[in-house]
Amino acid sequence: MLFANYILPLSILDFETGATAVENLYAVGETIAGIHGANRLGGNSLAETLVLGKVVGDHLADEPYIGAPELPESQQRAADEHFRTLKALSGQGSEDPQAVLQALGDVLEETAGIIRTEESTNEGLKSLEALRDRADDLMVGERTGRSFEYAIDLEFSLTVAELLLKGARERTESRGAHFRSDYPEESEAWRKNLAYRRTEEGMTFDMTTPREPSEAVRKALDADYELDYHQLE
Fold this sequence. Notes:
Blueprint: E1 2-4, E2 12-14, E3 19-20, E4 26-28, H1 42-61, H2 73-88, H3 97-111, H4 118-135, H5 146-170, E5 193-199, E6 202-208, H6 215-223, H7 229-232
Parallel strand pairs: 1-4
Antiparallel strand pairs: 2-3, 5-6
Helix pairs in contact: 3-4, 3-5, 4-5
């Protein structure tokens, strides 16, 4: 199995083959590379998917197929919960899943786009609650139809949207592609990672300090190289 260009809490064991901590699961694209750092441009993600996709593909072509591994109990429980969610997507409500998904995209563009503020992220979270109510009244249709596909996308998109908005509100600085007009400067105190998890009380997060870069990476950072914008495309 492959996944690409999604930031997931998953350890990459081998950056030359894309092997992850989950047996038989490989990563390609930005997930494994991140070679452009915080400067994430749309064209970069496509280039990384193509280049690293070939790297991983060449490796898998030489590997014997060993079948699907048995899932650990914790992952099996997560899979069972997901399947229960899919079975529940059979309602005949009044809301079109595609329309709700589009509305979610509009909310994120307006409240957590290129320029963010505490006020905008609060507005986004408030709008998100209304969208969740609409998502409880979906008109799903057949499982082979596009409506069912949009309903599945909506189910996890709402979670991702909540994490994005809360993370953007919590991080009171500007760093990389995250820009807060009410906190336009980068803050050394915010050289932290936020890891969110869902609990019975709702979404909570843990804050960790990133490891120091290796000597080779530190040497490159200290050199303070500059590139023209067109060199990044």
